[in-house]
Specification:
221 residues, 10 strands, alpha/beta, three-stranded antiparallel sheet
Length: 221
């Protein structure tokens, strides 16, 4: 399975409409991939409602994105008409149909909504689309210690779950939950420069929620 129609339904109904840049993504980009080249090409896979676009526009780079939802892409074209040729509707697990290579490819919790096979294919495409020594920055790959993992049922492989009826992942289709060993295997063609495990435990209300995800920086070698 690749792009989930549940995300199209979310955007049609106006849910998951994050429009403020993700702080982790900004800090990782500024720390590990300074945007100091006027011809710097950035690709975002799964840009969603465009939360990170204003940041990259402000930095003056050449921004591109591929997103599976035609509904949200149409809205982005209205918000950013100057990027209409740079933001496309497509399934990044199957192809990345831009005829250029990228200095940086970013992803905030998009690739992790796929099965192992789809993720492997996506990372292979990303590797091909990066320049030599180009970097991939992934934010919020969900961890296998996330407390909502058990609210879903196994689909396709042991790392992938779906049919969530409540919690963070209700109505968003497949979700992939990784441990360190699995991520190391998925990124075996890359050099992993940074890998951080983020765990946030909710104390009030004390409902047992533990948000857990991985942030990582990988370089094409």
């Amino acid at each position: 399975m690749s792009f989930s129609t549940e995300w199209e339904q979310c955007f049609q109904s106006g849910t998951n409409m994050s429009v403020w840049p993700w702080s982790d993504l900004i800090s990782y980009v500024m720390r590990y991939s300074p945007l100091n080249n006027i011809e710097f090409n950035v690709l975002e896979v799964g840009c969603g409602a465009g939360a990170n676009i204003p940041f990259f526009k402000k930095m003056g780079v050449n921004y591109y994105a591929i997103e599976g939802s035609s509904t949200i892409v149409s809205k982005l074209w209205d918000r950013f008409p100057e990027l209409k040729n740079n933001i496309i509707v497509g399934d990044f697990t199957k192809e990345i149909p831009f005829d250029i290579k990228f200095d940086l490819i970013v992803d905030r919790s998009a690739i992790t909504h796929n099965s192992t096979n789809a993720i492997k294919n996506t990372l292979s495409l990303i590797y091909t689309k990066l320049i030599k020594n180009g970097k991939y920055i992934g934010i919020d790959w969900f961890s296998d210690v996330h407390s909502d993992r058990l609210k879903g049922v196994i689909e396709e492989d042991n790392y992938t779950r779906g049919n969530f009826t409540d919690g963070q992942f209700s109505d968003v289709g497949q979700v992939h939950f990784s441990d360190k060993r699995h991520l190391m295997e998925l990124f075996e063609d890359f050099s992993i420069l940074v890998m951080e495990h983020k765990i946030v435990k909710r104390e009030i209300p004390d409902d047992g929620l533990n948000f857990a995800s991985w942030n990582l920086v990988a370089q094409k070698i």
